[in-house]
């Protein structure tokens, strides 16, 4: 994947994530300003930043599934 495509993918993920770009950046261990500059096109995404963002999104997805399952398991039978 080209650096431009990688940058576009990271920027889109930041816009569409289930939390703010700032929260995503902090959870990924990168400065929020870095993600903001990637979103605005002032900076290209590195493989390290892209990997950190992707790993965080996957972790959030797993956490959300676990939380949803707990709620569903707490529902009375037939109430899903």
Question: Would you write up a description of this structure?
Answer:
By secondary structure, the protein is mainly alpha-helical. It has one domain: 434 Repressor (Amino-terminal Domain) (Orthogonal Bundle), CATH 1.10.260. It is 74% helix and 0% strand. It has four helices and no strands. The protein is elongated, with a radius of gyration of 16 Å. 19% of the residues are buried. The mean pLDDT is 95.
Q: What is the fold named in CATH at topology level?
A: 434 Repressor (Amino-terminal Domain)
Which stretches are poorly predicted, pLDDT < 50 over at least 5 residues?
A: none
What share of the residues lie within helices?
over 70%
SS content category: mainly alpha
List key phrases describing it.
80 residues, mainly alpha, 434 Repressor (Amino-terminal Domain), 4 helices, elongated
């Amino acid at each position: 994947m080209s650096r431009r495509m990688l940058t576009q993918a990271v920027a889109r993920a930041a816009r569409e994530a289930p939390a703010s770009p700032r929260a995503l950046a902090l959870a990924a261990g990168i400065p929020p300003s870095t993600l903001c500059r990637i979103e605005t096109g002032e900076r290209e995404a590195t493989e390290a930043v892209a990997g950190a963002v992707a790993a965080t999104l996957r972790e959030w997805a797993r956490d959300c599934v676990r939380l949803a399952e707990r709620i569903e398991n707490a529902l009375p039978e037939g109430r899903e």
